[in-house]
Amino acid sequence: MKKHLHVGKWMLGTLLLLWVVAFSLTPLCADARTIKIGILGPMNFVQGDHAWKGAQIALDEIKAAGGIKVGGVKMPVEFVKVDTNEILSLSNATSAVEKAITRDKVDFLVGGCSSGAILAMQEVAADHKKIFILAGSGSHPEITARVAKNYDRYKYFFRGGTYSAINIVTVALSTLPDMAKKIREDLGVEKVKLAMLFEQAKWLDPQIPLYNEQIPKMGIEVVGIWRMSINALDVSAQLMAIKESGAHIILAMTSGPVAIPMYRQIGELEIPALITGVNVEAEGAKFYEATGGLCAYSTYLTQQSDVEITWRTKPFYEKFRKRYGENPSMTATAYNSLLILKEAIERAQTLDTDRVVEALEKTDFQGTGGRMVFNKEHDGVFGPGYLMNVGVQIMPGNVLHTWFPKNYKGTKELQIPPWMLKYWKGRSDNK
What we know:
By secondary structure, the protein is α/β, with parallel strands linked by helices. The chain has helices spanning 2-31, 46-64, 90-102, 115-127, 142-149, 151-154, 165-174, 176-187, 208-214, 236-245, 259-268, 286-290, 313-324, 334-348, 353-360, 418-424; strands at residues 35-41, 68-70, 73-75, 77-83, 108-111, 131-134, 157-159, 193-199, 221-228, 249-254, 274-279, 299-302, 365-367, 370-372, 390-395, 399-404.
């Protein structure tokens, strides 16, 4: 009997020891739950598609590191694809974010591309106190101005790697002096004229007065502004009016699918002008096919190309092209936003929202488009040494040439379209 009692005590002691060990390990196992991140975007459009694709490259790097390290524990990460349909429907965008938070139980939100939709989705994220890092082309100043106006409510929002509309003005203006110089030299033009062709979108409205003020200071005449729907299928009326105006440069600003018919018709109608500006659609490889190659010789501004902006730029660009057979668009900067989030969580050593916000505010990250540091409005600091831009030109055969600025290794010379040379060369009205 005593022997059985001794054995029983030994077994009980062993079980208690195992229980203590198991209990001591339980917090590690519990903490090693999956971190869920919602990737937002209109997934049937290049803006959402490229946000998701850029996110997958970030996920590869996060997995290679064993996950996100939180308080000494490597946590696995899962991405949830959230189709906001924001280009076509504001209500779809807000309901998609609401479902991602309440049904899919995402911990963080990354993505978005349309300013109007982002302003609405931002409210949903603020209601739930979810960190939301923009990784698209939504650039209306109010999106981040809210952070300064009502920090306690909107502190969870950060513009991760894209520009405010105010900075986009600087970006859009940056190539114009070099472009005007090229036109004067190659075409013998003395008075360079410019037309503005903008989609009807909120992010552009605050920019227009600035262009009207700044462009004439460069010695370039503004001949007018034309607007078009973000989903327009025919822009020929606006383009023919621009041709009649005598414009040598078209400053075109588009974030939506209107860019496809617009650039196609520029080629079809052989509009004798160099085009520059923002064109999110052009940043995807399918843009060349969608325009039937008629977008050749057009230029646009982007945050990354195959030149060395930072040590991350070329490797990311090459990985994206190798994996998807496409050039990464602006929304592929979801890659940067996710790695910024990873670093912030690891600095905070917790998933506590307020502490992650504090860590995000201390971000100093070498992204694909430059150095990323947040200001008090949670906007990326813009300018030399921080976020910058490059100008690229689409050449026949879908070959991309980075032509601006000249200080990056691998830049090429800007080319005037052949029909533009033919139209303007030697004309008496060039003077």
